[in-house]
Amino acid sequence: MATILSLSNVNKNFGALTVSDDVTFDMPEGQALGIIGPNGAGKSTLFNLIGGTLAVSSGTVQFAKQDVTRVPAAERCRMGIARSFQIPHPFVGMSVYENLLVASSFGNSGHHDAKAECRDILDRTGLLPKANRPAGSLTLLERKRLELARALASGPKLLLLDEIAGGLTEAECHELVETIKGIRDSGVSIIWIEHIVHALTAVVERLIVIDFGKIVAEGEPSKVMADPLVQEIYMGISVDDTAA
Ligand SMILES: Nc1ncnc2c1ncn2[C@@H]1O[C@H](COP(=O)(O)OP(=O)(O)OP(=O)(O)O)[C@@H](O)[C@H]1O
């Protein structure tokens, strides 16, 4: 399987604060990869470095066999890296459908028929009945779906999902997981940062744990979650507690 994304010794410092610390990993095309870690561990920063909204302090980012370390964010989007944000900010005065058309015109879509493609994405993300509603009138779940749909409309090869399930009810979360599984099964590579671990592990086949900007564990999700170090870092269960 070809490598879609490769990070080599990526570092990011804000003054004296190191937020990405020698991050190195390869991601095969078509993989669904989860990233977890405590608040402030540097997860969203990593997305900013992959998407190009932040420049690395050192190290390299390769996407689809090209060195994109110095490539601006808009160009990376056109190359096929799309992202959903923790807090959705759609164009609230535009319709849901128009929001997708905007994303399609800026992205990597190259669709022969962008309108038909956007309608198909609305259908796949459950937003077709809301297509002509102003984006500002959507519920939280619908806004999350729109965030996903806009990212898809840009024609991604790699989709970065930043805490997309946050704030949803259990039932809503389940609905969204099914939609993301559909995207994964269509062959789009996915990296998903999420605190709702059961939602994440329902989709991803590999998990990376970040703490203080450093990768501290990675591998098959159930094995990673059973690692005592991960339990201590992520869930506050210390090895001593379990022994008591
Ligand atoms: N532009 C910036 N300037 C200075 N410090 C920053 C900047 N962006 C992020 N940080 C700091 O970097 C650290 C990592 O932030 P980041 O948002 O990447 O963490 P996170 O793991 O995504 O957290 P959360 O789970 O809460 O979203 C935090 O201490 C944050 O305050």
Automatic annotation (TrEMBL):
<keyword id="KW-0067">ATP-binding</keyword>
<protein>
    <submittedName>
        <fullName>ABC transporter ATP-binding protein</fullName>
    </submittedName>
</protein>
<dbReference type="GO" id="GO:0005524">
    <property type="term" value="F:ATP binding"/>
</dbReference>
<dbReference type="GO" id="GO:1903805">
    <property type="term" value="P:L-valine import across plasma membrane"/>
</dbReference>
<dbReference type="GO" id="GO:0015188">
    <property type="term" value="F:L-isoleucine transmembrane transporter activity"/>
</dbReference>
<dbReference type="GO" id="GO:0042941">
    <property type="term" value="P:D-alanine transmembrane transport"/>
</dbReference>
<dbReference type="InterPro" id="IPR003593">
    <property type="entry name" value="AAA+_ATPase"/>
</dbReference>
<dbReference type="Pfam" id="PF00005">
    <property type="entry name" value="ABC_tran"/>
</dbReference>
<keyword id="KW-0813">Transport</keyword>
<keyword id="KW-0547">Nucleotide-binding</keyword>
<dbReference type="InterPro" id="IPR051120">
    <property type="entry name" value="ABC_AA/LPS_Transport"/>
</dbReference>
<dbReference type="GO" id="GO:0016887">
    <property type="term" value="F:ATP hydrolysis activity"/>
</dbReference>
<dbReference type="InterPro" id="IPR027417">
    <property type="entry name" value="P-loop_NTPase"/>
</dbReference>
<dbReference type="GO" id="GO:0015808">
    <property type="term" value="P:L-alanine transport"/>
</dbReference>
<dbReference type="GO" id="GO:1903806">
    <property type="term" value="P:L-isoleucine import across plasma membrane"/>
</dbReference>
<dbReference type="GO" id="GO:0005886">
    <property type="term" value="C:plasma membrane"/>
</dbReference>
<dbReference type="GO" id="GO:0015192">
    <property type="term" value="F:L-phenylalanine transmembrane transporter activity"/>
</dbReference>
<feature type="domain" description="ABC transporter">
    <location>
        <begin position="5"/>
        <end position="237"/>
    </location>
</feature>
<dbReference type="GO" id="GO:0005304">
    <property type="term" value="F:L-valine transmembrane transporter activity"/>
</dbReference>
<dbReference type="InterPro" id="IPR003439">
    <property type="entry name" value="ABC_transporter-like_ATP-bd"/>
</dbReference>
